[in-house]
Design a protein that fits this description.
Elements (H helix, E strand, L loop, with lengths): L2 E6 L2 H8 L2 H8 L4 E6 L12 E2 L9 E2 L1 H15 L3 E11 L2 H8 L3 E5 L8 H7 L2 E4 L9 H12 L10 H5 L18 E2 L2 E2 L9 H25 L9
Helix pairs in contact: 3-5, 4-6
The structure holds adenine.
């Protein structure tokens, strides 16, 4: 069973989300385990200080090395060594293939920074893999860590009711997005379900869905290329 250990200053906020939906079910069924650890508990001063001003000046605060690294050393001594990821907008993009890899990893550490992030020496000392969930900046790594846990949990065998859900989803092959889905009523506010889905010809349905997925994948790529990466600088 994969174990995620999440290092965070806000364990209570994470626990609430982890308890619901697919992840909550996986935890209750014993198919996944998640520990949230507050590295503030590894501080030694009266004020439980986790951050300090940046050398060289500038805005914001930086997370100090001592409590973070001592916390990781403690938890690895207790639970075993982990694959060590740090949530960081400067990291490499996290993709579906990474979620598939983590579903087969016995233990993964997800380190959530706040403020300006972790002292750079923590990355070197712990040999961290920085990963990003997109080209935007969150206030901390917590939502990114939850994103990774959820993307991984649904790939653990037995978590989804129907295993086909994960195989047929968007990005299951690394690039193609899913086709559209329809349910009853057949006509709703004048909008009709495509005829091919109502005729029971499974070969035609499969062909229609594959063509639709290809079309949607292309449209998504076109829209991405047409989106200015900087406002007002579209060539
Ligand atoms: N922390 C802040 N922003 C982030 C992002 N986009 N991805 C991962 N971690 C982050």
């Amino acid at each position: 069973m994969p174990l995620f250990t999440i290092l965070t200053l806000f364990p209570d906020a994470l626990e609430a989300y982890l308890d619901v939906g697919v992840v909550g079910t996986a935890l209750h069924k014993g198919l996944l385990d998640v520990h949230c650890v507050d590295f503030r508990d590894w501080t030694r001063d009266r004020h439980r200080t986790v951050d300090d001003r940046p050398f060289g000046g500038g805005p914001g605060m930086v997370l100090k090395p001592e409590p973070v690294v001592e916390c990781v050393e403690w938890l690895e001594a207790k639970y075993g060594t982990h694959r060590r990821l740090v949530l960081d907008p400067a990291g490499r993009p996290f993709r579906q293939a990474d979620a598939e890899a983590l579903a087969n990893e016995p233990r993964t550490l997800l380190m959530c920074g706040r403020y300006e992030g972790f002292d750079a020496r923590i990355y070197a000392e712990l040999d961290l893999e920085p990963v990003s969930i997109g080209d935007f900046v969150l206030a901390g790594g917590e939502l990114a860590a939850l994103t990774i846990v959820e993307a991984t949990a649904r790939l653990v065998p037995g978590v989804l009711g129907d295993a086909r859900s994960a195989v047929e989803d968007s990005f299951a092959d690394g690039e193609t997005v899913d086709h559209e889905h329809y349910t009853r009523p057949r006509v709703w506010r004048g909008r009709e379900v495509p005829d091919v889905l109502l005729q029971g010809d499974h070969q035609r349905i499969a062909a229609w869905r594959a063509a639709q997925a290809a079309e949607r994948t292309k449209a998504r790529g076109d829209a991405d290329r047409a989106t200015p990466s900087k406002p007002g600088r579209n060539p």
